[in-house]
Amino acid sequence: MVRHRSAVALVFGFVLAISAAGCGGVTINKVLADPGKYRNGEITVPGTVSESVSVLGRGAYKLTDGDQSLWVITTGGAPRKGARVKATGRVQEGYDLGVLGNVVKLPGSMQSGVVLIESSHSARD
Q1: How far does CA 106 lie from the centroid of its chain?
Q2: Which one in 3, 31, 74, 115 has a CA-CA gap of 20 to 30 Å to 37?
Q3: Above pLDDT 70, what percent of the chain?
Q4: Secondary structure of the chain: what % helix, strand, coil (to 5)?
């Protein structure tokens, strides 16, 4: 009986650990540290919108988490500045952000870089 309880507790602990590991999610820092790791799959990244621009139904917004930020490119409207967002999409390296330079002042180092091509997002205040 004791052996059975130990086995059940062990399995329960394992399932709980796996579930907790999945809840950690992908952070902007993880994406920027190794963008190639996330290139072939869809990911969800949380953050706060620090810059936002929409033109003719297309847009981009800068998702920030602490001191790290990631541009998100969207074919829908961009969420407003200050919104807390979970953006879902695919990571793309070497994306030319120069087209945004006419609307948003980008630092020289951000003329091309890692972006998230959005498939959807959910925003909350």
Answers
A1: 20
A2: 74
A3: 66
A4: 30, 45, 25
Domain 26-124 matching CATH 3.40.1440.10: the answer reads: no
C-alpha closest to that of 117 among 58, 66, 37: 58
Distances in whole angstroms, Cα of residue 63 to Cα of each of 18, 38, 44, 70, 114: 28, 17, 12, 5, 12
pLDDT at 124: 79
Domain boundaries, the chain: 26-124
Using the structure block, give the residue that is written with the tokens 């003719």.
56
Taking the model in full, what pTM does it have?
A: 0.71
Extended beta strands in 28-83, E state: 42-55, 58-65, 68-74
